[in-house]
Amino acid sequence: MRRRKPYHHGNLREALLEAAIRLIAEVGPAGFTLREVARRAGVSHNAPYRHFRDRDDLMAAVATQGFRELTQAMLHAAERQSSCLDRLKRAGLAYVTFALRRPEHFTVMFDGPTPVKTKHPDSAQEADQAFGTLLSFVKSCQDEGRLPSGDPVELALLAWSMVHGIAKLAITERLPYQSKADILKFAEFVIDQSLAARA
Amino acid sequence: MRRRKPYHHGNLREALLEAAIRLIAEVGPAGFTLREVARRAGVSHNAPYRHFRDRDDLMAAVATQGFRELTQAMLHAAERQSSCLDRLKRAGLAYVTFALRRPEHFTVMFDGPTPVKTKHPDSAQEADQAFGTLLSFVKSCQDEGRLPSGDPVELALLAWSMVHGIAKLAITERLPYQSKADILKFAEFVIDQSLAARA
DNA sequence: CGATTAATGTGGCCACTGCCAACATTCTAG
DNA sequence: CTAGAATGTTGGCAGTGGCCACATTAATCG
Fold first, then answer.
1. Rounded distance, CA A37 to CA A15, Å?
2. Where are the domains of chain A?
3. What CA–CA distance (Å, rounded) separates A48 from A58?
4. Which nucleotide is nearest, taking the CA of residue B45 and each C1'?
5. Nearest 10 degrees: Cα torsion A174, A177, A178, A184
């Protein structure tokens, strides 16, 4: 759409998104401020309104990007795994890894009560795609008879709840593990337990 | 401490807490405002500062109360269960039920990045007690040989992650279930799967 | 080309917030 | 009964989100 320096600033929208992400990383989603974002992008406090309806709209854009990255991370992690169960496991670990690497993204993606979902279809669609990725791994395991047949959605939701719980507790520092490595080890333990049960 | 009508207002602290909880229930933790709480309690916008250091301190008080209620709910649910596994299962379901009944409390309790934990020891202590309750159920199952021996903390964290993930996804409306009954049915399915695996 | 029009960025404004300081009132001790 | 502590009030400041009217630049079309 905008290949060459398009308008006044250049490409403000992208710049604002970047600035927003960095700001959230510094002060958290709560301390996040539209005006500070504008400041960092070097524009007036009102410029962002030309690209985002309001504060929440910018947040939703951050979330959208986060979901895309999450989907990619899961797909990438599952590559080159010969066993379908391994693919599922790797995807789950990638989910937790993503949360640890981008805790602010993760928070924005999942803490919004759901205004994001109703008023920002882009975000919702990317979220569905992320879940769809997990779901496809579950289905392929069922096809190979490595998971019990039954509602694949229910099983995928089980897996999702699992890794989501771990991720959320981890980034809010509720788990008694210090390093990311320890957290991932715990995640692996949990996933192995769940998968071993029905292998 | 304060049995008889103590001071000017009566007992402002309690009134503020109640007003805060109702306000959060209406507008969510984000839209929550100290001044609005004061308004609802019928006092000036600065009165709350005599009872709470700042906004976060009030939030922490809400969280503290939430953790207490959560602990009670789990203990109560586990009563009169003859099997230790049933106690564990009931406690887990009570965790999800609590989240569904008091989503605002739950959000305040677990969404804070962790300023709550460091600056508000009361809240942290009540949170530990809630986890301790879960842990005790796990331990008693191990003692009876109904759960594999091993680090009980690790198993309790597994259980916690599980129900926490379900609860969080449920109250942010990420699960494709409409009624609380359906959500609880799903939670039961998940718990049964996990427990059946190692019975 | 040149002028019109839409897209983008700016400064000013309002209501609101959290929090601080100074002051007023009421309770409790001595 | 009085001094001092506890509680509540008024006023103020800096900062925010979001609206408006205005300025400036880019894209389009005669």
1. 9
2. 1-52, 62-197
3. 9
4. D9
5. -110
Name the nt closest to B52 by C-alpha to C1'. C19
Please enumerate in sequence order all residues whose Cβ is within 8 A of that of B182, keeping only pairs 6 or more positions apart, or say none: none
B198 interaction partners in chain A (CB closer than 8 Å): 193, 197
Strand D, nucleotides covered by protein (CB < 7 Å)? 6-12, 15-21, 25-27
pLDDT tens digit sequence for B86-133: 999 999 999 999 999 999 999 999 987 665 667 888 999 999 999 999
- Residue A28: burial class (beta carbons within 10 Å; 0-12, 13-18, 19+): middle
User: What is the spatial distance, in angstroms and rounded to an integer, between the CA atom of A51 and the C1' atom of D23?
Assistant: 19
Q: What is the residue-wise DSSP string for B9-26?
A: SS-HHHHHHHHHHHHHHH
pTM, entire model:
0.93
User: What does the buried/exposed string (b/e) look like for B6-25 if buried means 16 or more CB atoms within 10 Å of the residue's CB?
Assistant: eeebebbbebbbebbbebbe
User: Which CATH number is associated with domain A62-197?
Assistant: 1.10.357.10
Q: Residue type for B39, please? A: R
Distances (CA, A) of A180 to A46, A66, A94, A189, B85: 39, 20, 12, 14, 31
What number does CATH give the domain A1-52?
A: 1.10.10.60
Asked whether the beta carbons of B59 and B30 are under 8 A apart, the reply is no
- Read off the pLDDT of residues A130-166 as tens digits, 9 standing for 90 and up: 999 999 999 999 999 999 999 999 999 999 999 999 9
Residue B21 has pLDDT above 80, yes or no: yes
Contact yes or no for A154 and B189 at CB 8 A: yes
